[in-house]
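Appendix C reproduces, verbatim, an entry submitted by the partner laboratory led by Prof. M.T., so that reviewers can inspect both the input and the predicted structure.
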Amino acid sequence: MNLEPKILDSISTGVLVLDSDLRVCSLNAAGQAILDTSEARCLGEDAKNLLLHPEQWLGILTQVLESDSPHASRSVALMLLSGQEIHVDVIVTPHHRSDGETGLLVELLAVDRLLRISRDGNLQHAQETSRAIIRGLAHEIKNPLGGVRGAAQLLARELPDEHLAEYTGIIIREADRLRDLVDRLLGPNRQLELKPLNIHEVLEHVRNLISAESENRVTIIRDYDPSLPEFPCDRAQLIQAVLNITRNALQAAPSLADCKITLRTRSQRQFTVGTKLHRLVCRVDIIDNGPGIPEELQHSVFAPMVTGRAEGTGLGLSIAQSSVQLHGGAIECESSPGETRFTIFLPMEQTHA
């Protein structure tokens, strides 16, 4: 079967072509992303070597070869070589080659990806609703705050006893503090200043800040993909986003000496953010070995004012998410005791303002 590689690489369905011996003839970009591998690594390999525990996978392929008829399986669990389990819909179709041999055309559709797209869409809608409510509340709060502050300043000038000015000073400072809190609730309030930047410059800056804050007591592991190209982004806003996430890990650690944070970068092909399919995205994982996020908070971890710490404001992750979304990206979180992973996805072919 002669399929144009560029066409196959532009679709979001994974396409794997096997010969009659179940050896890989080609694998498109989406298939590489789903199986977490590269075509160069797979060409000529037996299909059983693409996965750990490939029994069900091989059973499906063998059945189609023997019956010479198409087969579809829904939500098949595949264990990748990395140890990650994914669920995919598998459609296998026999194709008869010009040399008389029968090969297989395998289509892979990641069920996890479809669920994530649906979940992200619902989450984005809920967040837009929340932000609209917050903007309305902010307007209602800031107007009277300005009046309170102005009245306190006028009162301070009229007080006969200068010692009483201490109380008006408290009013003014608290009004300013509430104003700043409202501004932080609203998130980034300026346009992106996009310039070509290597994401590792951002991560290295954050690493230096965290090392200084912890007096070098925290172990920070760097696992960077040096092949990642520069792409347009706002350096200051991305630093703030990554710093907020990393600082959360630092603050949640029971002991700085035992705290371990991993900064990892990878490229990922054919990735969907919201409803838009991106050919290539930069993936940044921030992983810590802390106690994890309480289960009851995990579904709302990015919502403003949600925090598991008594002294926290619950704004750090909300601000991080707003900054990443302004870049057309997304943040995901997975947490269990001993490992919390925040993953930032940033499109590399950015066309937003």
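The two ends are 42 Å apart (CA to CA). Additional entries are available on request from the coordinating office.
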